[in-house]
Design a protein that fits this description.
heterodimer; A: about 325 residues; alpha/beta; 2-enoyl-CoA Hydratase, Chain A, domain 1; eight-stranded mixed beta sheet; 15 helices; B: alpha/beta; 2 domains; two-stranded antiparallel ribbon; 10 helices; 9 strands; binds zinc ion
Chain lengths: ~325, ~280
């Protein structure tokens, strides 16, 4: 299971960090070795014996890390779900920092509320003004509570619509980031028209005359994901998943047993490869071995290239061609 | 019943629709017991009451063709894309067997029945989702049939009426089911842009992806009394908020009170209400 391998790799990461600091003589800044799992270290030294100097030890650890990472070249769908939900995975604020400049946040639906599970505003991408909208997950438990774990209420979708309508008005391309367990299934969300809000976004997004590019960065579940995902091009990070429902929900509906979620993952065809085959995803953006959380820079560089290339391609289309191109993408499915 | 005369176009299907509702295994040849109030009433009284319990007013599920027979002028029905059959885009285990079972049970090829026909002489396009077929769930063929019917209404400049009923997504079709939301919503928005009248009629139950796409995009939204209407199902909401939902939550009357439904329309008033609205929109 990927979780165990990742833990080993992370232990090696820490050990290498400590050794590198030792080698540089930065003993004061030694990372707390207690946090390194003793079990794994033992396993490693059993395999490789004792080391005489730091440099050799570092080399050996790096070799070992390579071996573990190579184990993660091909992942089962449920392992991708694990990575897609990884707490340290880059989130929308990281993508905005990494890809855009001049970001100006726009808050609220200007009707009723400010839903923090949707984040967005205006920014520049390679100098071009764009509108960015996406689901927001937090980096800590407090943040996640504040952002409702990236599960929007109707107000969030209406904020997204407000921002996107402005993009249409000012002729700005729209870039959306999808990462949500789904729309929030709460009482107030229902009372305020969750279905209407999502439906309206789908309808209006089909009409825009500007380029729309969606990036599935983590998990994209249900209509709650699609509500900001009607795009000319759908990019998926290599380990992102996109599906009708969470695997747990899927298993619970189909077999009345959410515990069978791993089995569900296999059947659901939710990986980037599956979505590419289905014609939903257009581009797969590579992640480092072991997942995006291991190297943000690697992901940003690849995503930047893919976004730029696709945006340039789309800018060659006329406004009416952009609309027709987007409608055709979905018209062809099913 | 006068309206039933239009059934002549689909005699076998309508008979089957009605039979499916009331004459299950013919166990109750004269009286029919209401599932809601437990009281018995004459079969004839049920029929004359459009399959609404003559005692307590509980709405029974009716089939698509029977519903159409209550609305359309006799002999005016023309079915669109009747030969489109449910398919299995993900080769999902046991799905094709389940489709066969649904087909056998209902006599339908998919959950959506799409027709053109006339109401009081006005030509219209009507889409009915039949909750007896896989709970009216959104499949790729449901999405395709709905889209084609909407496109037909756009092209022919006809009023569009959709009777929604859906348990949500067709799980066995995964992402293909999800993408039908985008496809159908786009078709409705194009119809909308062309100036056509779309009446969305919500029946029990309308939930999930259907609620979050075409069902919520009507110019006029009507609902049958007591229908469950929402995006998330009540069970999921209760699991999320760890509370029991109040009585009547997500029912037609609740939605009307919260500003999402123009009018709740009794089954007996269905045809007259539609005709009134069509006349109000005709030049
Ligand atoms: Zn009754």
């Amino acid at each position: 299971m990927i979780e165990t391998i990742l833990k080993k790799v992370e232990t090696i990461d820490k050990k290498i960090e400590v050794l590198e600091k030792k080698a540089k003589g930065e003993t004061k800044e030694l990372v707390d070795t207690a946090s390194v799992s003793e079990e794994v270290l033992e396993e490693i030294s059993e395999k490789y014996g004792q080391w005489d100097d730091h440099t050799r030890e570092i080399e050996k650890l790096k070799d070992l890390r390579e071996i573990f990472l190579k184990d993660m070249r091909i992942l089962a769908p449920y392992e991708k779900v694990y990575l897609a939900r990884h707490a340290k995975r880059p989130h929308i604020d990281d993508f905005i920092d990494g890809l855009f400049t001049d970001f100006f946040e726009q808050k609220g639906d200007h009707l009723f509320d400010e839903d923090k599970s949707i984040f967005g505003g205006i920014a520049r991408f390679h100098g071009i003004p764009i509108t960015v909208v996406g689901h927001r997950k937090g980096h800590s438990m407090e943040e996640n509570m504040e952002y409702n774990f990236g599960m929007p209420c109707p107000e969030g979708y209406r904020k997204a619509l407000r921002l996107m309508n402005q993009a249409e008005k000012f002729g700005r391309p729209i870039i959306t980031f999808i990462d949500t367990p789904g729309a929030y299934p709460g009482m107030e969300a229902e009372e305020h028209g969750q279905g209407e809000a999502i439906a309206m976004n789908l309808a209006k997004m089909s009409q825009y005359h500007v380029p729309v590019i969606s990036v599935v960065t983590g998990e994209g579940n249900s209509g709650g994901a699609l509500a900001i995902g009607v795009a000319n091009r759908v990019l998926m990070l290599e380990n992102a998943v996109y599906s009708i429902l969470s695997p747990e929900g899927f298993a619970s509906i189909l077999w009345k047993d959410s515990g069978r979620h791993k089995e569900a993952c296999k059947l659901m065809k939710l990986t980037a490869d599956d979505l590419l085959e289905a014609g939903v995803a257009d581009v797969i953006v590579r992640e480092p071995l072991g997942g995006a959380q291991r190297d943000y820079g690697f992901v940003m560089k690849n995503l930047d290239e893919a976004l730029y290339k696709n945006l340039m391609d789309l800018r060659k289309l006329s406004p009416s061609e952009l609309k027709a191109d987007r409608q055709m993408k979905y018209r062809k499915i099913g | 019943m006068e309206a039933l005369r239009s059934a002549l176009t689909f005699p076998a299907r309508v008979k089957r629709d009605v039979g499916d509702v009331l004459f299950k295994k013919n166990k109750e040849p004269v009286f029919v017991t209401c599932k809601a109030c437990g009281r018995r009433a004459l079969k004839k009284d049920w029929q004359n009451n459009y399959y609404v319990c003559p005692v307590c007013g509980e709405y029974r599920t009716i089939g698509a063709y029977y519903r159409l027979s209550l609305i359309l002028d006799p002999g005016s029905i023309h079915e669109l894309n009747a030969d489109m059959k449910a398919n299995d885009p993900m080769y999902f285990p046991e799905y094709s067997e389940k489709i066969a079972k649904q087909r056998q049970k209902t006599g339908l090829e998919e959950a959506a029945v799409t027709v053109s026909g006339k109401i009081g002489g006005y030509k219209v396009v009507i889409i009915v989702l039949d909750p007896r077929f896989f709970m009216g769930s959104m499949s790729s063929i449901v999405g395709e049939k709905v889209t084609r019917a909407v496109e037909y209404a756009t092209k022919e400049k006809l009023p569009l009426i959709i009777f929604s009923a859906s348990g949500g997504a067709r799980m066995q079709e995964g992402i293909y089911s999800l993408m039908q939301m985008a496809k159908t919503a786009a078709a409705i928005e194009e119809f909308n842009a062309s100036g056509g009248l779309y009446i969305s009629f919500l029946t029990h139950p309308t939930t999930g992806g259907v609620t979050a796409s075409f069902a919520s995009l009507g110019d006029i939204t009507l609902a049958e009394p007591g229908a469950l209407i929402g995006f998330a199902g009540p069970r999921v909401i209760e699991q999320t908020i760890h509370k029991k939902l109040p009585q009547g939550f997500q029912r037609s009357e609740y939605l009307e009170a919260h500003g999402f439904v123009d009018k709740i329309v009794e089954r007996s008033q269905m045809r007259d209400t539609l005709l009134q609205l069509i006349k109000l929109h005709s030049k």
